[in-house]
Amino acid sequence: MAGTITDTQGIVALAAAAVGAAALALSLALAVSVRRLRRAQKVVLGGDGERDLVGHAATLQDAFVALREYVEDASTRLDDRLGGAETALAGAIAHRGLVRYDAYNEQSGHQSFSIALLDDSSSGLVLSCIHHRDQARVYAKQVRAGQGELALSPEELQAVALALTPGSSQAVAAPS
Questions:
Q1: How far apart are CA 164 and CA 26, in angstroms?
Q2: What tens-digit pLDDT sequence spans the chain (176 residues)?
Q3: CB atoms within 10 A of CB 127
Q4: Hey, which of 10, 32, 54, 124 would disulfide with 118, CB 3.0 to 4.6 Å?
């Protein structure tokens, strides 16, 4: 009995050949896809080809952990330095006020002055220089929390108030 294509054996043989051809085409398509995937993987992972994607992800994770530790350490050091700078600046002169006046009503062009030099806690000193025709006197008074430890003259009080007024011009000529 010779088989032909139209009998059962021929039809089964043709179906097997079609399935084999489809499997061959599918395996070729998958091989091309894997080749493209490996090429893309080499771009992401580098050209060595020794590592796989999981190993690369683990390496990236370790690098991120190291970076995070470095940033936290740098942040801690920066906070320490900033705290030291803030402490150093706490006593620095932050506010000043200058009042010029004529102490003896001599029409000498406001040669006397009082200057308040205060820190952020409104503490510091007031310097007053009283000029007269033949002499000059300098006085220094301590200021704590905006109040003089000794009685302040009206011009000294005005200098302190001027120093503590936000946006003030910082220099005023007092009326004679």
A1: 85
A2: 566 777 888 889 899 999 999 999 999 999 999 999 888 877 776 666 566 777 778 888 999 999 999 999 999 999 999 998 888 887 888 899 999 988 877 666 778 899 999 988 889 999 999 988 788 899 999 999 888 888 999 999 999 999 988 876 556 666 65
A3: 17
A4: 124
Q: Could you give the C-alpha distances from 25 to 29, 31, 39, 121, in angstroms and in order?
A: 6, 10, 21, 84
Total-model pTM: 0.53
Distance of CA 12 to the CA centre of its chain: 76
Rounded CA separation 169/156 (Å) = 16
Beta strands in 45-135 (DSSP E): 95-101, 112-118, 124-131
Contacts of 142 (CB under 8 A, 6+ apart): 125, 148, 149, 150
Structure tokens at 3: 């088989």
Q: On the CB side of 118, how many CA atoms lie within 13 Å of its CA? A: 28
Residues 146, 122 contacting (CB under 8 angstroms): yes
Q: How far apart are CA 95 and CA 146, in angstroms?
A: 11
